[in-house]
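Posting for a labmate who doesn't have an account.
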Amino acid sequence: DTGDFDAAMRLVRDGDTAAATDAFELFIVTWPESPRLGEAHYRLADLLAGADDADGAVQEYARALRGWPATNWGAEATLRLAALLMGTNRNEQACQ
């Protein structure tokens, strides 16, 4: 699973966001027990947000944050999720 995750990250760094989105979606389906699953959801959410898919990004940030992961990206994911919720007039959810 690490190789697939790293390959998806290389696509992000190379600026191939469409291929990176596909790669993270495939990673999530292929490796549902991976310790990097939450981060894959987080990275996918970032890509979807960048593609103006707010609803998709909200879902992926929420999936990334299940269980309140103690990671270096957890706080950023929480803020991004709240901002998207506020941007789509879901202020009550954003406050939660």
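Reply:
Got it, the structure tokens are right above this. Residues 54 and 81 are 9 Å apart (CA to CA).
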